What we know:
The protein has helices at residues 16-25, 42-53, 66-73, 91-94, 96-106, and strands at residues 5-9, 29-34, 57-60, 78-81. By secondary structure, it is α/β, with parallel strands linked by helices.
Amino acid sequence: MGKSKVLIVGGTGYLGKRLVKASLEEGHETNVVHRPEANVDIERVQMLLSFKEKGAMLVSASFNDHQSLVNAVKLVDVVICAISGVHVRSHHILLQLKLVDAIKQAGNVKVRRCS
């Protein structure tokens, strides 16, 4: 099976950082979304920089900027959303609908359902 172009949303979280690591180890072109409007969190910045050092590309995108999400999705053929609702307010889970809309608009990611 060929290598994929992967976009990981939530890449600095508990699950996301593991997904980024696994994607890079498998040799996939790995793109990690970072939010330009996020407060400066030195640990997250250091994590993002370590991903970049290992070969990941950092992609600036925001749930508050639909076109930035569309542009990020257009770079890849696989989108992984690792956003959790456990440690954030529950409305953040609903933000994933904006990601789904961006995926639909970009039109280049095929939906695969697990059975």
